[in-house]
Design brief:
globular, 11 helices, Creatine Amidinohydrolase, Chain A, domain 1, 2 domains, alpha+beta, 17% strand, 28% helix
Length: 473
């Protein structure tokens, strides 16, 4: 790949043009993370424990928040809760409920399964489990030891008291762990080991994990692309949602399809609403490792917009594409989150829209790990980072919306070479996407930016003319 170092956006406004979106394809077989990589992750977690002065690491998961335990073991609880415990000697236990005893990590990882039936659903048998206190004590949670607890969130600001002592585990677990430790100050929130935006364990992905995420993105992006192309006047939200394909991959969020006033509630699931001329729409689909979203208007051109939007919306969506361009062009291995934020914010016309949230974030099995994209943030973007182009505009004028949410990975030369060698079809698709973004859309990507979406930076503002999208000319 040729190096593309420019980080400045086009000086002239982007053009809405007829363009052909290539068929980038998808592999028939989904790649997987090999079991030895999970063993490496568990060993790395033990090393992080030791460096943090912890004697025991406790990793909690439930159905909604399982990314940390799944990253370490390949296991995620189904219906239930689970608890992974690692001690300083490297011993590992996994506490699960009734149904997950038949759904456990690979035995070669050396994790001892322990039945704790209160992790099971209500009304199920409870007669074969030892009490929680006894199990935790047998796994090394004891007086004088420093215990690190990993959930899915840690607290740095003033909104929650306690700082590092504030846990996001359920109280029945937190209370028992603190009691066994003797001194509550010896039980700390260790979620940052996994998720902090500077060196969290889940920031830098391997070639295998990137290939898994790229396959996921092929599914979700192709689905959202098909959904946009299926929009027609009178189509129902549920009808459009039939375009979504996951091939059985676990979802990272609820599928979203909305028309009209409901589109302002962007997180809403598809219902019986039907598309009408002049409606706003929003579509999104997310699975582990990928999420794609598009939003726009159900018209063929600006003449079909409601009167209040005819002069405003074309300016908003054109400026949004300029912001997208600046964001992509500022990305590179070694850039800081603050630099990318500043590039995107400088391209934004503040008379048109504000950022609803951070302009982008880290992506993993969960849709949002953390975000370094904030004013002045000095976190350095590492090789292997999976990043979401997630800029949500809040209109400064009449209610309307647009969105072009896709994922990318950052990779240095060594990681690029490994991807090309081990996953050649994935690498070919990435190269095709780069050529499309650079040559057709005029977005000058740094050589370390690897697009994962099958509709990369494709922004058609008018759903009834999806062949017309923005490009820099």
């Amino acid at each position: 790949m040729a190096s593309m170092l420019s980080t400045s956006s086009s000086s002239s406004p982007p053009q809405l043009i007829d363009l052909e979106l290539p068929e980038f394809g998808i592999d028939d077989a989904a790649p997987v993370v090999p079991v030895p990589e999970y063993a490496d992750r568990l060993r790395a977690a033990s090393g992080r424990m030791a460096a943090a002065g912890l004697d025991v690491l406790v990793v909690y998961a439930d159905r909604e928040h399982s990314a940390n335990i799944a990253f370490l073991t390949g296991f995620d609880p189904r219906f239930e809760e689970a608890l992974l415990i690692i001690d300083a000697a490297g011993r590992r236990w996994l506490l699960v409920g009734n149904e997950c005893m038949s759904y456990l990590p690979d035995s070669s990882l050396g994790i001892e399964a322990v039945l704790f039936q209160e992790f099971s659903l209500l009304g199920q048998p409870r007669g074969r489990s030892r009490p929680l206190r006894q199990i935790l004590a047998d796994c090394g949670v004891a007086s004088g030891r420093r215990i690190g607890c990993v959930g899915w969130k840690y607290f740095e600001g003033p909104l929650v008291e306690g700082g590092a002592l504030a846990l996001d585990l359920p109280s029945y677990l937190a209370d028992t762990i603190r009691s066994l430790a003797g001194d509550p100050a010896r039980v700390v929130n260790a979620t940052a080991l996994m998720m902090n935006p500077r060196d969290g364990m889940r920031l830098a992905n391997s070639a295998a994990q990137i290939a898994v995420f790229e396959h996921a993105s092929c599914l979700t992006s192709s689905s959202v692309l098909a959904a946009v192309r299926a929009i027609r006047v009178g189509a129902s939200e549920r009808e459009i949602a039939r375009s979504f394909r996951t091939d059985g991959m676990p979802l990272s969020c609820h599928p979203m399809v909305s028309f009209g006033d409901k589109a302002a509630r962007g997180l809403a699931s598809p219902g019986e609403g039907r598309a009408r001329i002049g409606d706003a729409y929003t579509l999104a689909l997310g699975v582990w490792g990928a999420l794609n979203c598009r939003a726009g208007m159900v018209v063929a051109d600006s003449d079909g917009l409601p009167e209040a939007l005819r002069s405003f919306y074309p300016r908003l969506v054109a400026n949004f594409f300029q912001v997208m361009t600046a964001w992509y062009q500022a990305l590179r291995v070694g850039a800081t989150g603050g630099e990318v934020f500043r590039a995107a914010d400088r391209a934004r016309d503040p008379s048109l829209f504000d950022f609803a949230l951070n302009p982008g974030h880290y992506l993993h099995l969960d849709e949002w790990v953390h975000s370094p994209f904030a004013e002045g943030d000095g976190s350095v973007l590492p090789s292997g980072a999976a990043i979401q182009m997630d800029i949500i505009p809040v209109s400064r004028g009449p209610a309307c919306g647009t969105n072009g949410e896709d994922g990318v990975v950052l990779a240095d030369g060594a990681l690029c070479a490994e991807l090309a060698r081990s996953y050649p079809s994935c690498w070919r698709r990435i190269g095709g996407r780069r050529r499309f973004m650079i040559g057709t859309l005029g977005i000058h990507l740094h050589e370390s930016v690897l697009p994962l979406s099958n509709m990369p930076a494709w922004l058609p503002p008018y759903a009834l003319a999806p062949q017309r999208a923005f490009a820099n000319r």
